[in-house]
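User: For a reading group we're discussing how well predicted structures match intuition. Take Thiamine pyrophosphokinase. Before you show the prediction, I'll give you the sequence so everyone sees exactly what went in.
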Amino acid sequence: MEMEMEMEMEDETEIELEWSTEFLYSDYSMYTNGAPSLIILNYILPRKDILDRLWFKAKFKLCADGGTNRLYNYFKNNPAEREKYIPDYICGDLDSVKPEILDYYISRGSQKKLLYDQDHTDFQKTLMFLRSLEEEESFVKNDVYVLGALNGRFDHTISNVSSLYKVPKEKHVYLIANESVVFLLNRGNHKIYCFPKYEGPTCGLLPIGVTEANVMTLGLKWNLDGSFPLSFKTIVSSSNAFEHPEQEINEVIVNTDQPLYWSVECDLNEQ
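Assistant: Thanks. Here is the predicted 3D structure of Thiamine pyrophosphokinase, as structure tokens, for the group to look at:
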């Protein structure tokens, strides 16, 4: 049965989008789309080599309100190093960023974008502003890396996760925490390139924001064959794993009829 399903998926599934977190671990990721941007939110940032890699990959660097404090305080023991990390824009209603920190960055070239809109979070406003920056380019081709989007307050985490529903379905937005990376797989067929040396092997497929999702997969330890839907009322595919963690690269194929969140374990903490 499993072999028949694999042959059927390989024959009939046309991959629509490809994903990978290789950009976290390599300066020359072949899976990066367009010119990526970096958004920093108000939570714990990863270790220095990860921050460096994402910072210098990014065409645009944006802090969303309180994320500005996080960036500033990251270099509290090395003020000279702080001078190398000046964001292009500081966005939001700016009620959380400390005035002296805002002045510090503005005096060094950052632009302030006061976006007062109580119907959207600072993260959502920053995403919308970024889209306006990229209008003359191909917005859907540019990846977005988001630091500080997970953990912390539960309502903030859920809000940040829900924000991925509000971007174009072709857009690759990666929510990055020190223990996991999350992104939204919209309806369709996806291939995810996984690197067991750096991430996993634990991963999950989570039907957040939908009643149920019919899902078929290849490349997981416990593949889904579409015989039962994923839902909060029945079962979610948490604590799944790569099929071949001993291999350098694992390819996971996901076919879903509803939006579905992919979550993969990582360790970006100071070592």
